[in-house]
Each structure stands twice: as C-alpha cells, then as structure tokens.
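hey can u check if this looks right to u? its 492 residues, i copy pasted from the old doc so theres a chance i mangled smth
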Amino acid sequence: MSPEITLLACVALPLLAPALITALHRWPNPREAVTLLTSGGLFLLVLSLHQTVLQGTRPAINIAEPLPGLKIGFEIEPLGMLFALLASFLWLVTSVYSIGYMRSHHEWRQTSFYSYFAVALGSVMGIAFAGNLFTLFIFYELLTLSTYPLVTHAGDDNAREGGRMYLGYLLGTSVILLLLAIVWTWSLTGTLDFRAGGILEGTVTPGVASLLLVLFIFGIGKAAIMPFHLWLPAAMVAPTPVSALLHAVAVVKAGVFTILKVAIYIFGIDFLAQVPATQWLTYVAAATILLAALVALRQDNLKLRLAWSTISQLSYIVLCALLITPLGIVGGGLHIVMHAFAKITLFFCAGAILVTTHKTLISEMNGIGRRMPWTMAAFTIGALSMIGVPPTAGFISKWYILLGAIDAQQMFAVGVIILSTLLNAAYFLPIVYTAFFRSPASNPEYGLKDTHGEAPLAILLAITVTALGTMVFFFFPDLPLELVLQLAGESE
C-alpha cells in the first residue's frame, strides 16, 4: 500500500468503525473487540508512515477542490506525524482502560460512547494530517461536534450544563474568530496551504499580521488560553476515559498543535518575530500558566485540579510557539507528548479511584496509597513528570522549553517557567503526601486488611503502560525528538 493510500486509510478507518460498533450493540464483547482492533490497526498504519517522514518524504493526497485553490487534502509533516502517533497509540491504551471503567462503573449508552470516541479519533487524524487550513478547520469542527455527546454522556443537568459551555466556547471561538482569520488569510494570500517558512511574509504588513495572530490565538479555543478556557473544567462532567484522552490528549492537544502549525507554516518563525502582537501574547500565555496553576491549588476535586493544571500546561506550548526560536519549537513539540503521557496517567488514576472507592475529593483520600499502592505509585510518576523532575519525561520537555526561552533572551519567560514549576509541585505533592503519609483512620475503608483495593485489571494495565511511557521517554526520547528536530529545521 502506497504512503498516500495509507495516509487516507488513517483518516477513514476510525470514521468507518462506528457503523460496525453500532451493529454489534447487543454483543458487548464483539463490540469492544472492534474498538480494540480499530485502534490497534490505526496505530500500526500511522507507525508505518513514521520512517517515510523521517526520510524527508511528504506523502500527500487531495480529495476535493470545492473552490479554485481551496482544497480538501492531506499531507504528512513532522509535527502531524508526532501528533498522529501520540493520539493513535493512546487511543489503543484508552480503549483497554474504557472497557474496564465503563463496565465496572456500570455506565449506560456504551455503544454510543465507543462510536463517538472513534469519530473523535478520526477527526484527530484529519487535523494531524491536514494539508491546509481549510481541511484542518473542517476536522477541527468535527472534533468539537463528535466530543459533545461524550461530554454530555451522563445525561443529567450537570452534564447538559457542561456540554452547553463546552459547545458554546469551542464553536463560538472557532466560528467567530478562527474562521474569520482563515477567510482573511485566504483573501490576502490566495492560498491556505501549509508551507515551510509560512505564506504571510511579503503579502501583509506587521500590523495586519498582528490582528491575524490575535484572531488565530484566541480563535483556537481548544488551546484554552484565558479568557477562553472555562469550557475545559466544565467538560470534567464527562466519564473519566473522555477526560483522559480527549481532554488530556486529543481535544486540547488539537488546540496547541494548531497554534504551533499556524506559527510555523502560516506565519513562519522569521516573520512572526516582526509581528508586534507576538510579545504581548507571550504575556497572555504566561499569565494563563500562572493563574491557572494558582486556581489548581484551590481545587479539592481531583479531576478539577487536573483540569486547571491542563490549562496551565497547555500555555507552555503556546509560549513556545511565541518564543520564535527553533529550540522553542522543539520544547513545544516535545511537551505535547510528555504532557500527554503524564496527564493521561493522572486521569486514569482518578478514574481508578472513583471506580474503586467512589471518592472524588482529595480531602477524602487520606491513606488511599495503602489500599491502592499500584495506582498511587503511577499517580506519583505522573505528578513528578508534570513538575518536571527526572527521571520522568516532563523534565526533557521543560528543559528544552527553558533553553528556548533563554535562546530568545526572554528572561521573563524563564522566570514564569521556574515559578510555575514550583506551583506544579505545590498542587501535586500534597496529593501524594495525603495518599501515602496521612493516617487512614478517618477513612477505614482504606485499611490494610482490604485485599481488593485496586481497580479492575484492564484499568491497571492501561495505567501501567502510560506510567511506564512517562519514564521510558526520559531515557529514550529519540522517537519524538527526531521528529521535532526535523520540524525545527523546517521552521528556520
């Protein structure tokens, strides 16, 4: 199979899977088998393209051209390859986790859950491999619409309210701001293709480019830049597998991926340095990093603390895009991967605690590490990676982010990264301390005599894989590093 056909299959496979999943709704085991086979097959298809991209080849295929010069098509470049590998692998892991979680938690509408999950991953593949802004926008919107039923899965008032905020923020920012930026870019340049070095230089003034940059940054609401961030905590009403993959990986990473893609392939790093808005948007990203971390400190609900942490961590990647240096691009690309593995581990652990103990508040988790040592050991690994402590993957990405800030001579950004790291420690380490070192006396159900403390095997297996990945990438960061270094080379 040619790389072009494989590329098309990567997008089509998860979009076709829901038909078979729905047909098997009366038979849970075959239905889940389809989910596992589809996710595993997608990962293998994406992986088969990896060496092709590393060798410098850029497979591309066009599907349609609704208007002259306005194409729906796909092309692979290093950042898209990295995002597709990440999302497809973690879909497979999350599918295993979901089977254990959905059955143990006795969730309803499981068939629709797996169907919309597959459509969401197909949307992510479309975003990752989009050959131009028009194609990316189509799949960006499809991702929003396909994840809305997942956010509102519970069907209660809280779920509906969270879903309204989710849809309102994401559709509002994309239709009002992002679409305007895309149409304006097309009218100015006559193309929406992603090109190394960008398409705006020589066609617009720095002032117009500033307006465009503001529209792009705030229009890409999935990046959760303040003040367009409240949808993310609201979406925590979703089942934990949704929070884990879609709001720690797919949805939020689609946002910061798009910002990086626009910075590199629409503006171009050299031209971005001439855009006046770049500097003050750097302050907006820095403020989001610090303010979201401060809010995270105040959250007693575990999933909400993780959600606010995500808002803070996403802005590291936005900051990297605005540092306008190759090292910043490397740091941002790496952080997409390193943050994803750590944060999905933390969400997996939160779900395991909920399934096993029905606890959601950190204040109720005294001594839980004695009942669930495996789960809380994995949580500790994820937390250390979020802080950036070796030997975890978060250290690698934060190291490159710091180097990027120093290379850009942005000492303000260096200070923000250091201060936010201290805040990361302040809101994660107390959870670890509570779990392992506080007396479980007030929570007798966590006693050492309980021999059935851990979550079901499928949940533990997924937690183990992502926690190990968080450490493996510290010692063997070559796979993501090779791709982001190639990306940085294209950005120069």
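The first helix runs from residue 3 to 23.
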